[in-house]
Write a structure and sequence with these properties.
single chain, mainly beta
Length: 436
């Protein structure tokens, strides 16, 4: 299935008596114990044949013979502190404070399944009774997907479960985390902290990066939610995926973080040369802006499969961050339109030109006014030097500098075709979701 930008696709699904892919989706037979090698367009990935653990990744496009690094992924846990000689502070809903600096194994990984077809390969692992992980390599995707299910955590003691990635990258005790999904901030391991583990944890909103300045290679882990992360050893990074503590940390909740929840999540591993890092910005958008899926049962429609796209912006480094219909007067629509250049200069980001008259397909721009970021005041009241600010603009054509966000109130006159699309969307919403 394909989904066009700022649009929708609808499909009619029915049960097949003999699914055409059923023959290719069976578990694979192989020599037990021998390493499993998986090829994609970008990577050569090697897994341990006994445990299913990731062993190494080769980026086939980096250098003449490709660049290879040892990369592994495993689950460990920290025991939650309930107070000690250093402090009476307990680990809890607001505080991460382990009993010691060494994370403990949660179980020996076991290879439970191996599935492969012409689209992807999956390696299934279990770690004891309450952790399952699937490592998925798509033939045509530039990332390796780690999907995990953790929980419910046993309640015999407080646990803080991490997913740790060990690599052979030389990082000189440095790593990078994003600042609210935008600029990357360099972090350094601080061995002088009184709390050497939690004192070196940082918020990871969308991604965490290890960089080998000697080889020019980097490993990015893209997250599907905000998590805590750290790099406590050379070439290593870890992310917190689940917690269960048995004591209140006395920070206002007045109860322990003692829930028997099951958590499911994904990480995307992107291994490349540093000068190709801008690709992970696009992947981050793909991870964050997941499509909305609606399912309905009805008679066979006249046109069972159809689609529509309302966008004409064809630059993957432009994010249409906000579109809000703020006014409809007669035959025109006024939108609050917020555009973002998602790539920073240090990652190769360049100015991008956007024609506001071509943001939407089939709409005619009648007027626009730029506002401050919040959209509550004219840009002239926010920017001191308007001549410098608009130096590269030309009428409807505006320029977004690396990581810049600009906000507009733009008024468009819709086409006759769009009126028909709006009616179809309204009919679908009224039919399946609300009583109109």
């Amino acid at each position: 299935a394909t989904l066009p930008a700022l649009g929708y696709s609808s499909y009619r699904l029915q049960h097949a008596l003999h699914p055409p892919h059923s023959q290719s989706l069976n578990s694979q037979s192989r020599n037990t114990g021998s390493d499993i090698t998986v090829q994609s367009q970008l990577y050569n990935v090697v897994f341990d044949g006994k445990t299913g653990s990731l062993k190494s990744v080769t980026n086939k496009l980096s250098g003449k013979s490709g660049m290879t690094d040892n990369i592994s992924a495993k689950f460990l846990e920290y025991r939650s502190n309930t107070g000690d000689k250093l402090s009476e502070q307990s680990s809890g809903a607001h505080i991460f404070r382990p009993t010691d600096n060494a994370a403990k194994d949660v179980g020996t990984p076991v290879l439970s399944n191996y599935i492969s077809n012409d689209q992807f390969t999956e390696i299934w692992q279990t770690f004891g009774d309450w952790i399952n992980m699937v490592t998925r390599v798509y033939v045509d995707k530039p990332y390796i997907e780690i999907e995990w299910v953790v929980g419910p955590l046993p309640s015999d003691h407080g646990r803080e479960v991490i997913l740790r990635y060990d690599t052979s990258l030389t990082t000189n005790q440095k790593f990078y985390t994003d600042s609210n999904g935008r600029e990357m901030i360099q972090r350094r391991l601080n061995n002088q902290q009184e709390e050497p583990v939690s004192g070196n944890y940082y918020p990871v909103t969308t991604r965490m990066v290890l960089l080998d300045e000697g080889t020019g290679m980097q490993l990015t882990v893209l997250t599907d939610r905000a998590q805590g992360g750290a790099s406590l050893a050379e070439g290593q990074m870890e992310l917190m995926v689940h917690r269960r503590t048995l004591q209140d940390d006395n920070r206002g909740v007045d109860e322990a973080l003692d829930d028997g929840l099951v958590v499911k999540g994904r990480h995307w591993l992107y291994y490349s040369r540093f000068d190709a890092m801008s690709e992970n910005r696009v992947l981050g958008q793909e991870m964050f802006y997941k499509p909305t899926i609606a399912v309905g049962l009805d008679e066979i429609p006249e046109h069972p499969s159809q689609g529509y796209s309302d966008v004409a912006v064809d630059n993957e480094y432009i994010n249409v961050a906000t579109i809000i219909n703020v006014d409809y007067s007669g035959d025109v629509f006024t939108y609050l339109l917020r555009l973002e250049n998602i790539t920073p200069k240090m990652e190769g980001g360049k100015p991008i030109v956007v024609d506001l008259g071509r943001i939407f397909r089939g709409k005619t721009l009648t007027e626009f006014e730029e506002k401050g970021l919040a959209g509550d005041r004219p840009i002239e009241n926010v920017v001191d030097d308007m001549d410098k600010y608009t130096k590269y603009d030309d009428g409807n054509v505006i320029t977004l500098q690396p990581l810049q966000i600009r906000t507009f109130f733009a008024t468009y006159k819709p086409s006759t075709e769009e009126d028909g699309v709006a009616d179809r969307i309204k009919n679908l919403v009224c039919k399946y979701f609300i009583d109109c």
